[in-house]
Each structure stands twice: as structure tokens, then as C-alpha cells.
From TrEMBL:
NCBIfam families: TRAP_S1. It holds the Pfam family DctP. GO terms for cellular component: outer membrane-bounded periplasmic space. The lineage of its organism: Bacteria, Pseudomonadati, Pseudomonadota, Alphaproteobacteria, Hyphomicrobiales. Residues 1-24 form the signal peptide. Belongs to the bacterial solute-binding protein 7 family. This is C4-dicarboxylate-binding protein DctP. GO terms for biological process: transmembrane transport. Keywords: Signal, Transport. It comes from the Bacteria. It comes from Aquabacter spiritensis.
Amino acid sequence: MLKTLKSVALCAFLAGATALPAQAADVVLKLAHEAPETAIKGRTAKMLAELVDKYTNGSVKVDVFPGGQLVPTVEEIRAAARGQVDIIAPYTSYYSSIDSLWDIFYQPMLFKSPQQAIDVFSGEIGQSLLSKLDSRGLKGLAIWHDGPVYAFTRGEPATAPDVLKGMKVRVAPSKPLEALLQKSGAAPISMPATEVYLALQQGVVNGVVTTPTYAAPARWGEVLTTMTRGALWGVGGYGLAMNKRSWERLSPEQQAGVTKAVAEATKWNQSQTLENIKNSEKALADGGMKIVDLTPAQIAAWTELAKTVWATQSDEIKAMVAKIQK
């Protein structure tokens, strides 16, 4: 009888043990970004969270907050430096406020293709920019790719600089692109991405300089009519960075797991880039957007104007421009 009771008790204990919740993570990190979950950044961030859980054996959990839930885009870098959030992935142009060399990605008409941009992101230039974030209280982790930056309008396509004359064009903070717009006679308007749809709808702005890979999932095609393709105004990307103190709190094993997760998520992001651009452009066209390809003569005219912007850059950026052109 006693033996039977012991067996019943043991079975009950084991049954209860299997019903226990999974062990809580030792560290929980908050990753904040402004993009929709369906955008390439949203999908890459979700994958990163899953991989961090996998490669740290559940000891580190990344909670992802998309759509600007925690902090506005313009506050992300400061919030991460203060430790208000742990991980951020703002548009690379936002880093120009703390290091003007990040303007390299927005030198108009410099890059010839998205693949060239991927190579620069992951190469010497990209790694150098990430390493310099250390002095700002941030651990630079990677640069994720978004897509080519084009001119979008409500009306006539931007086939020539004078088309934009008198227009109000939203652009992410970027001195080179703002300069190009001003040289075209347009008024550059800076505002968070989460406010752009309503601004277009209400006529606060009537053009946008952005990527098709952001415009499509953000549904900006509903309030824009044309995209001008052929000359890259820049290359969109996201600088993935982590609060330095949050990084240092991780054990060496956890840091290794996070590093592995970042590398794998970044590789996936890059592998999806070209297909994502193609799908995004198709989605915009299917929604009624007119996509206009520039002629060689039109590209040359835009490039000549862009060169006047390059000429005003710092010696360091000019050296980087020359390196990319080789």
C-alpha cells in the first residue's frame, strides 16, 4: 500500500513538473523601432529575437516593439544611449546627428546598385562607422539593408530637378539630400515616418524621398502617385546598435550568442534585399502607382546636380566617395 502511494505521488510530481512554465530568461532586452512588422526591418528584428533566444539557450530574451510604440524615431539614439531601451535600429541617416560620416549613405546618385550598397554596409566603411558608436555609449552591431532611395511624388514624376520646384518633400534627416532638394527648388520637410501618411493625405507634403521597400508596407502608395526609378538618391539602411552597459552586463557566452544571432539575421536581411525590392515595387505598381524609369540623359542631369552636393562635403566623406566610385 505504501509503495503504491509513493508511486502515485511520484507520478503526480512528474506530471506537475511537465506542466511548469519554461524557465524565465536571465536577461530581457527591449528592441524598439518605428517600422511596420511586415517591413524588412520588422521581419529582420523578429528573426533576431528568435535567434537570440536560440543561441543563448533562452537566457536572453529580446522583446520587439515595432511601430514606434516605445519611443519616436528621432529619440531612439538618445533613448538607447540612456538605457531607456536596449537595442535600436534607426534609419542610418539619424546617426548623422552624432557622426556626420554616416551621410555617406545619402550622397545622391553615388551608389549604382543595391548590391554595391550591401557590400559597403558590410565592408570596411560600414564597420568603421559602427565601431565609432562606442564613444557614444552604444555597441554597433550591424547595418541592415532596406533598399534604394527614390523620389516619390503626388503628380508629375521627378524626371528632372525643375519638376520638384516649389514642392514640399519629406525626407529623413539628411543634409546631402536636403541640399539636393533645395538645389532643385523644393522645400525639404523632416518628420517621423509614422506621420508621413497623414501629412501626404492632408497635403502638408506632396512628395517623399524614401525606399519602395518602406513605402509599400507603410501603405504610402495610397497617397502617392508616382515613383521615379533609375538614379539612387541614396541607399536606405538601419544601424543596429545596443546600449553599451546592456551589452557589458551579458556574460561572454551570452555575448557570443547575441553576436551569432546578429550575424545570421543580417545575412538573412541581405539575402532578401533584391527580392524584397522587386516585390515592393510590384506591390506599389499593383496598387496603382506609376513607376517611371529615367533615361540616361535624365540620370546624367541629376548626377551633375548631385556632384555639386558632393563638392560641399568634408574631406573624409570626399575620400569615402572616391573609394566607393572605384
